[in-house]
Amino acid sequence: MRRAAIVGTGAIAAAHAEAVRALGDRVELVAVVDVDADRAMAFAKEWGVPRTHPTPAALLEAEDLDVVHVCTPPSHHVPLALECLAAGVNVLVEKPPALSLSGMDRLIAAERGSAGRVSTVFQHRFGPAAIRLRRLVSEGAFGRSFVAKCDTLWYRGDSYFDMPWRGTWDSEGGGPTMGHGIHQFDLMLSVLGPWQEIRAVAVRQARDVQTEDVSMALVTFADGTVASVTNSLLSPRETSQLRFDFERATVEVEHLYGYTDAHWTVTPAPGHDEVVSQWRGEHPGIVSSHRCQLAAFLDALDDGSVPPVTLADARDTMEFVAALYASAFTGAVVKAGEIGPDSPFYATMEGTGAPWAN
C-alpha cells in the first residue's frame, strides 16, 4: 500500500483526496498540511485522514511517504517540490508546475540528484478517449493531420479574483493561458507533438487584474498542422473544445471540466467509414479525472518506470505558454526553442511587461 500526503487543502485538494479514496486498495492518504491549521483539521476529518502537520518540513520528517500531492497556489509549487525532492519523495503537483521556464529548469536539475520524481497534473491526458486517440494517431489510422482547434471558453466573474493570489504574475504566473486553457492545449500538444512557431495576442478586456483575461494564438506544428488556440475567462456559455481534422476523419470533443467517450465524436471523410469502428472503446463511462492520472502514476511506481507527465513533458507545455506571452507582448513570431536564459520571458511569463501595465 502506497502512502500519500496532501499539501494545501483548498478546493482542488478534494479532487486529489477523492482520487486516493477511489484507489483505496493501492494508496492511503496518511497526512495533510495547510497554513491554516483549522482548515487542515476540517479537511482531515472530512476525508478520514489520521494526521495533520503544521509545515511540509514537519510532514517530511514525520512520515514515510511515497508521494506528496502539491495543491497549493502556484507560487508555492516549485519550493514545495524542491523540498520533497531533497527528501527523496515523489511529487504530484497541480498545474502549473512552475511560474516560469526558469522554475522548470530548477526542478529538472533537482530531480537529477533525487530518488524522487515530479509529475504534473494534466488529467485530461488520461481519459480513455485521449489515450485511444494518441494510439490511433501514432498507428496512422487517421492519416495526416491538417488542422486543429483548441478553445477554453470559461467565465470567471470579478469575485473569483477576490483571492489575493489570483490574477497576478507573481503568484499565479498568468491568466487563463496559464491557469485554465493549459489543460486543453496540453492535451492538444500530447496528440499533435512538437510545435514549431506561434503568433499570438493577449488582452485584458474586463477583469481588474494584472494578467490577461483573453488570449488567442495561431500555431504551426512540426508536421505541418496549423491550429488555433483561444483561452477566455469572459465567456458566459462555458465550454472546452478540441477539434482535430485529419486526412480520414474529424475527431472532436466538447465538455467542460472532464470528458467521457460520450463527449467525443468521429466524423469520417468520404470513403473512410472504417475509422468509426476503430474508434470504439471499451470503457465509455470513465471520466478524464485525477483518478485516471493517479492510477497511471501508481502503475509507474509499481513497475519501476518513470511516472507519466514528466518534467520534460510539462516543460514543453510551459514553453508553449511562455512563447504565447512572448509573441503577444512583443508582436513577434516566436519559434520553439527561442526562449532561453537570455530572454525576459524565461524568468517570468510577464517578460517585457503586459501592454496594459503602462
Describe the structure.
The chain is α/β, with parallel strands linked by helices and 358 residues long. The protein folds into 2 domains: 2-123 and 293-310, Rossmann fold; 127-285, 2-Layer Sandwich (Dihydrodipicolinate Reductase, domain 2), CATH 3.30.360.10. The protein has 12 helices and 14 strands. The protein has helices spanning 13-22, 37-47, 56-62, 77-86, 101-112, 128-139, 176-179, 182-192, 274-279, 290-303, 311-330, 344-347; strands at 2-7, 27-33, 51-53, 67-70, 90-93, 118-120, 145-155, 195-203, 214-221, 226-232, 234-246, 249-255, 264-268, 334-335. It has an 8-stranded mixed beta sheet. A hairpin with an 8-residue loop joins strand 12 and strand 13. The chain is globular. It starts with a strand and ends in an 11-residue tail after the last helix. The model has no long low-confidence stretch (mean pLDDT 97).
Low-confidence stretches: none
CATH class of the largest domain, anyone?
A: Alpha Beta
| Distance between the first and last residues' Cα | 54 Å
Over the alpha carbons, how many angstroms does the gyration radius reach?
Answer: 20 Å
The H/E string reads: EHEHEHEHEHEHEHHEEEEEEHHHEH
Count, helices? 12
Q: Strand fraction band?
A: 15-25%
Helix content: 25-40%
> What average pLDDT do the residues reach?
97
Question: Which strand order does the major sheet show?
Answer: 13-12-11-7-10-9-8-14
CATH architectural type of the largest domain: 2-Layer Sandwich
The profile of the biggest β sheet is: 8 strands, mixed
- Here the CATH topology of the largest domain equals Dihydrodipicolinate Reductase, domain 2
What is the total number of structural domains?
Answer: 2
CATH superfamily of the largest domain: Dihydrodipicolinate Reductase, domain 2
The coarse silhouette is globular
- Sheet/helix structural class: alpha/beta
Number of strands: 14
